[in-house]
Design a protein that fits this description.
Oligomer: single chain
Strand content: 25-35%
Low-confidence stretches: none
Helix content: 25-40%
Mean pLDDT: 95
Distance between the termini: 34 Å
CATH superfamily of the largest domain: Gcn5-related N-acetyltransferase (GNAT)
Strand order of the largest sheet: 4-10-5-9-8-7-6
Structural class: alpha+beta
Shape: globular
CATH class of the largest domain: Alpha Beta
Length: 249
């Protein structure tokens, strides 16, 4: 599955507004932001970078004023991690990823209504809710709301649970499929609404939407044992590891 997920990562970054390819790496650039979580690289499966390749990769980030950072499945390109560490890259995080298929998918029997945003106000509310859910690590902005709309309009999925005040209580997104799979991400519930089954409802919403569009699998990463249990109840199963490396100042 590592090669499958890594091939997806490459294809997904190639959808970015600006794409740079150098020495067996693909860099996806979002011109509206300098966030390292939106601007990062991934290697081609089986890549065997030289020191010169890594230096060119670092240079491509630096000339754009961006932090050199990568996300990838290390088992799909075993020679990449040693080459990056030799250049000074360090571990930012390492996560197990979980995979769901139509055969394992078990959507909850729930009365929680899940909706698809349609208006600018709804996309802005989803963006603001995810900002709050992630403790403002990703500031809400018009650009963020526009990115969410693009996900929905370009073959992915955005789903949310409406709060009593008409805003957003919880939301999730899923990329458009590539290489037969899709990534569910940005699953978040505002603190005041946690413990009500919202995370499972929106995750099931985006997962089911991608299966309806023909994806053979949906994968995601989890942030703690609580969220892992939520995803496993929906039919997600552990399949591999994703590594995040960055070159600090």
């Amino acid at each position: 599955m590592d090669n499958h997920v890594q091939s997806f990562a490459v294809a997904n970054l190639r959808r970015r507004p600006v794409v740079v390819e150098t020495g067996g790496f693909v860099i996806g650039v979002d011109p509206t932001s300098t966030s390292p979580y939106l601007n990062y690289a991934t290697p081609l499966p089986g890549s065997r970078p030289t020191a010169e390749d890594v230096a060119a990769l670092i240079g491509a980030f630096c000339e754009r004023g961006l932090k050199p950072r990568l996300e990838f499945a290390p088992d799909a390109a075993p020679e990449v991690e040693p080459a990056l560490r030799a250049a000074g890259f360090t571990t930012e995080a390492s996560h197990t990823y979980l995979v769901c298929t139509p055969d394992t998918f078990a959507p909850p029997v729930s009365a929680v209504p899940v909706e698809t945003p349609a208006t600018d106000e709804e996309y802005a509310a989803v963006d603001a809710a995810l900002c709050e859910a992630y403790d403002h690590a990703f500031p809400a902005s018009p650009e963020g709301a526009a990115r969410l709309r693009r996900i929905q309009e370009r073959g992915g999925a955005v789903r949310f649970v409406r709060a009593p005040d008409g805003g957003c209580a919880a939301a999730a997104t899923c990329s458009a499929p590539a290489e037969g799979t899709a990534e569910a991400a940005g699953v978040g519930t505002r603190p005041a609404f946690r413990g009500r089954g919202h995370a499972g409802a929106v995750t099931a919403g985006v997962t089911g939407a991608l299966f309806e569009r023909g994806a053979a699998s949906v994968w995601l990463e989890y942030g703690g044992e609580g969220s892992r249990r939520v995803y496993e109840r929906l039919g997600f199963r552990p399949r591999g590891t994703r590594l995040y490396l960055a070159l600090e100042d």
